[in-house]
Write a structure and sequence with these properties.
With 227 residues, the protein is an alpha/beta fold. The chain folds into 2 domains: 140 residues, Rossmann fold, CATH 3.40.50; 64 residues. It is built from 8 helices and 7 strands. α3 runs antiparallel to α4 and α5 packs antiparallel against α6. The N and C termini lie far apart (73 Å).
Amino acid sequence: MGKTAIYARVSTEEQSVQHQQENLWNYATDELGISPEDLEVLSDKATGTNTDRSGYRDLLRMVRDDEVDQVIVREVTRLGRTMRDISENVHEIVQDHGCGLYVRNDQLEVDPGDELSMQDKMILNVLAWSAEVEAKKIKENTRAGLRAAEAAGKWTTRPPYGFTTDDDGYLQPTDDFSRAREAIIGVEEEGWSHRKAARHSGVPRRTVPNLLDRRDLYLEEYDAREN
């Protein structure tokens, strides 16, 4: 038997990729009887806007180059983001390259050289469908939460020029707030060009059009919130 690849992935800062690796390592050695020297551990940790999945790309490369005979993951969701992705990747690993596949939590086990049985395919389809439904539900809940936060006056994206946000997500003015107001008033009341407004206020010239697009926030909305 050749190398076995363990692939672990977590998607939040609170989750421990090391803990997941240890669980899969113990599963490989204790339950599957794989020697530690035959294990190759790969992992990814995506947080915030970081969507780098270099570990997963390395896993697929090793499978395609016949460098591993078996793949171990925690759940089928580690092998794709949608039902189609999961199904295609599992079939590539098992059917196209003859690798064994062991999905620890989903109790899907295919030995090297074996094809997916009808029962395996049924389990895979159900798991992949459930994963996609859950992902859509989480996405919808996130959007609903953002809409509720915005309705409550909270800022859910990058704060505009002249503002920061407090711990609750509400806008708070910075030292640049007065500069933003000066630039807007200069353009609207004094007839300044964008270049002159930038020069007199200290606001970057490329920012002036954005300030004008949001003039109500600087001249009316924020004052209304404060009062």
